[in-house]
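Posting here for the record, re: zinc ion.
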Amino acid sequence: LETYNYNKYHRIEEIYLWMNQISEKYKDVVTQHFLGMTYENRTMYYLKISQPSNNSKKIVWMDCGIHAREWIASAFCQWFVKEILQSYKDNSRISRLLGNLDFYVLPVLNVDGYIYTWTTDRVWRKSRSSHNNGTCFGTDLNRNFNASWCSIGASKNCQDLTFCGTGPVSEPETKAVSSFIESKKEDILCFLTIHSYGQLILTPYGYTQNKSSNYEEMIQIAQKAADALKAKHGTSYRVGSSIDILYATSGSSRDWAQDIGIPFSYTFELRDTGKHGFVLPEDQIEPTCEETMEAVLSVLDDASPFWQKPCCFL
Ligand code: 0X9
Ligand code: ZN
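Prediction output follows.
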C-alpha cells in the first residue's frame, strides 16, 4: 500500500488488492463491501468510509468507471479515498465532512469492460454482455438505467456504442447499483458519477429539457465547484444540464438518481477536451485528481447544509 502509485493506471487485480490493503490499514474508517456480480461473474466491491458520530449522517455515493475506457475516472475514485484517509485526522474541512457524511465509493463499476480495455481494446466503452447469439457484445451501462429508458440518445442496436440493453436495468451491473441505491435512497444526499472526457459538471436531465425543482441551487453549487477547480491548476470546466451542454441521453444513472429523489445528482466529465480524449497520459493523473478533489469537496461543503432544511430535501 505504501508503494501504491496513484500516478499510474492500474489493472483490476491491483485495484482490488489496493482495496483490500487500504481497508485493512484504515479498518476503523474504511470497509470493503460486496455490491454484486458482473455479467462475466466477477465481483463488484465498493468502499464505505465512515467515522463513528452522534449526528444522523447522510450518504455520498461516488461511482467511477461505468464506461470502461475512462481510466482517469477510476484513478480519481482511488485518489479521493486516499486523500480522505490521509487527511481526515488533521484536515478540519475533511473531518467536518466526515462528521456529517458517509462516503460510498465504487472505483470500477464496469469491471468486465475495464479488464477488456487492458487485454484487448483500449477504447472499449460498454459492458461485455453477449447479444444476438454472441454476434455482438456490450451494453452501454449509462443508457441502461430506468430513466426514460431508450427514448432518446440511446440505441436498440447492440452494435452501437450507446446500446441501451434489452430492457431497463437488464444488466447485472446496473441491477447491483440500482438496488443498492434504492435501498439507501432516503439517506443519500449526493450522487456523483465520474466520467471522462470533456471538462464538464452536468446536472439532470439528459432525456428532457425539464429541470429538477432545485436546479438553480444545483447549478450554483456546480459553478462554485468549477471555480474552485480552476483555481487549482487553471483548468476550465463548463457547467449546465446534460441535454443543454452535452447531448441528449436517456437511461443514465444520474437522471435515474434524481428521479428517485436524491437531491444532488451530478455527472463529472474529467480532462481533457479532446487532445488525448479517453487516453489521458499518466502525467495528467495527479493534476486532474488534485483539481477534481477541489471541485468535489466544494460540492459537498455546499450540499451538506441543505439536508437540514426541510425545504430542500425532496
Ligand atoms: O455519454 C455518456 O454517457 C457520458 N459521456 S461520456 O463521454 N463519458 O460517455 C455523458 C453522461 C452525461 N449525460 C447523462 N448522464 N445524461
Ligand atoms: Zn463516460
